[in-house]
Amino acid sequence: MRKRTLVLLRHGRSGADDEGVHEGRYDSPLTEVGRDQATRLAQHWRDGRMHFDRIVCSSLVRASETAEIVAAALAVDVEVSGLWMEHDNGPLAGLTEDEAAARFPQPSFRSRWAPLTESGGESIQGIHRRASEALEALLSGNGERLLVVAHGGILNAAMRVLLGAGLHSHFVFSDNGIAELVVDDNSDDVQLVSLHRSPVDLSG
C-alpha cells in the first residue's frame, strides 16, 4: 500500500496585504516580512531535516518567491505550475474593497457556475475544476513527499477536492499556513493530519 505525504503551504505576507487591496491575480511580491517568514520556515525545516521529493508552486511571484526560499534551503528544485495560481478575480485584482464594491457590486447569491463579476473572473466551480486538475497532475507523478506552495483560495479548493468537503467549507491558511495530508494511492482515502500556522510565524 503506497501512501504519500502532501504538504500545502500558503505564501508569506505580500505587498497587497499591506496595500489593502484585492489580491487574487494581482501579482504582488513578498514584503520584507514575507521574505523573513519564508526564510525562517525554511531554516526551521532544514534544521529539522525536513525532506521533500518535489516542490511545486504557483507561477505568481509571491508563491514562487516563497518556494524558491524554501527550495534553496532544502536543496530541491522548484516546478512552477499555472494550475496553482490564485483564484482569478478578474477586474477586482488590485482594487480596494470600496472600489470593488462601487464598480462591481456582488449579488446576494451567485451560482457556482457564474463568473465572479459581470466583467469576468473565475466561477466557484471553475476554481474547483482547476484544483482537481492540479491535484491530478501532481498525484499522478512521482514522489513520496510533496510540497505545494500556493494561495489561500486555490489551497482551499484543493482541500475540498481532496476531502470531499462542501463548496463553501473554509480552511484557514494564515501567512505560511501549512496543511499536511496523507494520500493513499491505492484507495480514495485521504487523511488530514494537521492544519496550522507556520511554526516560526511572528507576524501576529
What's the layout of helices and strands?
Blueprint: E1 3-10, H1 15-19, H2 32-47, E2 54-58, H3 61-74, E3 78-81, H4 97-103, H5 124-139, E4 145-150, H6 152-163, E5 178-184, E6 190-196
Parallel strand pairs: 1-4, 2-3, 2-4
Antiparallel strand pairs: 1-5, 5-6
Question: Would you kindly provide a written description of the structure presented here, covering whatever features stand out?
Answer:
Helix content is 34%, strand content 18%. It has a 6-stranded mixed β-sheet with strand order 3-2-4-1-5-6, with helices on both faces. α2 (32-47) runs parallel beside α3 (61-74) and α5 (124-139) crosses α6 (152-163). It has a single domain, classed as 3-Layer(aba) Sandwich (Rossmann fold), CATH 3.40.50. The chain is built from 6 helices and 6 strands, in the order βααβαβααβαββ. With 204 residues, it is of the alpha/beta class. The mean pLDDT is 95.
